[in-house]
Amino acid sequence: MNQTLFPTPSGTMGPALPRYEGRAKVTGDARYPSDVRLARTAHAYLHTSRIGRGTIEAFDLSAARAVPGVIEILTNETIGGEIRQMPAIYQGGYLADSAQPLGSADVAHWGQPIAMVVAETYEAAREAANRIGVTYRPHAALAADMDAAEASEQALDPISFGVGDFAAAYEAAPVRVDARYSTPAQHQNPMELFATQCAWEGDRLTVHEPSQNLNNIRFGLAEQLGLDAEKIRVVSPYVGGAFGAKGFLTQRTALVALAARRLGRPVKLVATREQGFTVSGYRAETRHHVQLAADRDGRLTALRHEGWELTSRADSVAMGAVSMTARLYACPNIIGRVNAVGADRSTPGFMRAPGEMSYGFAMETALDELAHALAMDPVELRRVNDTPVEPVGGLPYTSRSLMQCFDAAAGAFGWHERTQAPGSMRDGDWLVGWGCASAFYPAQAGNSAARVRLSADGRVHVSSAGHELGQGMYTMMAQVAAEELGVPVDRVTVSLGDTDLPPAVVAGGSSSTASVAPAIMAACDAIRRRLGIEDAPPASVMPAMEASGMGVIEEFAEARAHGQPPESIQGLYRGMALPTGGAHLPSRVQFALGAQFVEIRVHARTHEIRVPRAVGAFAAGRIINPRTAHSQLVGGMIWGIGSALHEHSEIDTRNAGYVNANLADYLLPVNADVVDVQAILVPEEDRLVNRAGVKGVGEIGVVGVAAAISNALFHATGRRLRDLPIRLEHIM
Ligand code: MOS
């Protein structure tokens, strides 16, 4: 892969410092939660359902119990109702789904944990789990996906809005597009598996679990097990990839905690790669109906986007990103609507840019179809419909640099050399196509606190229970404290990933920096007040005294509750599916924006699809560290290539199970698929979005890539492909 390592900082960007924890990671010093070795650990292994829906008639545990080293086997018959059923986060709870762990003999979906073996060794636990006999009574009619006759429209907190008179404007327009799109189920597959270790000391429980949301685990587990949350500590200093799958408490944690309590010794579970497909949430398959109408100059006169998302029977979940796609372009007549379709599957969840990826594919492909119908350059179509005001509520965007992104990316890509007719850029045996699309993501934030300590020797320690997923949290925290207090960054140390520290928001919704950086700034204010230098500009402090400060982000009054008893902290985290703010503020709309450009080559005879280059440009407010931000964006763009051309969790309709639940069969882009990826950081200053001026870059990189690829494929071949993933058999 050819690419610059990171762009030169410009505008308000901070320095491109190397990673705080880089050495620890590359030398193996970084200890991930499953690396922690505790004395006398017993090992757990899940046994998961092999049917899609039905009832367990009987277990035969004799062969499993006969395996040497087996200590205990938990099933619905032996667990004894010790774990309470709790609502999912979507209904105001904490859990990724509302199932009660080993709660009954009912099976809701393939891959559901129905037993857990605990043994002296991992191998014994696995052997015994494989020897568990189960007699099932399968349900007669199974809905494996949205096409199944038994799939059903499911109640959903309505996501439905509009402005103007869509129907009249659509009918009256001279140019129209009416098209349907689909995206498949996809799984995050973080490198680090879903691991949990639990150890009790008296009535205090320590949980080692890789997590994007430590306090969600703490408070959710407290309710599930009827414990005092103050007695639960969750530790996760490093996370080996998460992408939404480690955002919320899953069923496994309470099972491991319960087993450890029963045994009076630590218990460790590492779910297998296959089990990871149903242990946590995933990107649900979606369907879309988009209708666009425009005048002859390309100005949108009517826009309608309706989405359908697969969900489980038990939990109605929808990402509903029409709240982005229907609010991005000037248009007087708009309808946005989202539906949930229930099937016999595990509850879906968040996966990197959960709704924006799929809804963006539909809308940004439809816009390309409109540009083609208008014989208009697709960049110019976006320019004609650019707007400083969000079109549904009439609210201003805090900042909007969409066209600056298009101009920067188009320039770097060489877009002006494109010829418009499909098939017109052939190069020998290769059909060449160039396509583009917008990228977007809401700028969000959530309740967070940080503590900063200044020592007499000029050293600074900054702590917050944030999460290091590889995105650069340690580096960001050190950098912000160093900058605010005017100390060299190598004098700053950082603690994160521990519920004993001041609480931080979920590392999701691209909100970590936007939430924790302002808290660190507020903590530094407190120090400067204590030193009597509150008026001195940042970086002018040469302290020679002890001081510490606690800061919370100001926009969320509830966050001030920190320092009060844990119950009030818990209030901050109850039902926190995503941080507040972003698209839902009453006075303004705050989006990070970007532009994606892709070159596609399709071999005329073999139909092999290649992506020789991709250029993205992104404006996301202040960039604290261009190196880590750039890495996030390039990673996101590579995810976009995977989502468009490779990734598809394939379902066996006979048992609603995933047939490719492993990294051999679940296709991902490899180096040969990712040739030249360039991410440009467009300087943008936004004083309204939050004190740090940060919009977040964790997810926007993936958005729009799939549409840019499908648009480039149309340009190369004249074939419009509206269903992901796009593989060579689809363009034969
Ligand atoms: Mo992200 S899907 O909010 O972890």
From TrEMBL:
GO terms for molecular function: iron ion binding; xanthine dehydrogenase activity. Keywords: Molybdenum, Oxidoreductase. Its EC number is 1.17.1.4. Pfam families: Ald_Xan_dh_C, MoCoBD_1, MoCoBD_2. InterPro entries: Ald_Oxase/Xan_DH_a/b (IPR000674), Ald_Oxase/Xan_DH_a/b_sf (IPR036856), Ald_Oxase/xanthine_DH-like (IPR016208), AldOxase/xan_DH_MoCoBD1 (IPR008274), AldOxase/xan_DH_MoCoBD2 (IPR046867), AldOxase/xan_DH_Mopterin-bd_sf (IPR037165). SUPFAM superfamilies: CO dehydrogenase molybdoprotein N-domain-like, Molybdenum cofactor-binding domain. Residues 27-140 form the Aldehyde oxidase/xanthine dehydrogenase a/b hammerhead domain. The keyword Oxidoreductase applies. It comes from the Bacteria. SMART domains: Ald_Xan_dh_C. This is Xanthine dehydrogenase YagR molybdenum-binding subunit.
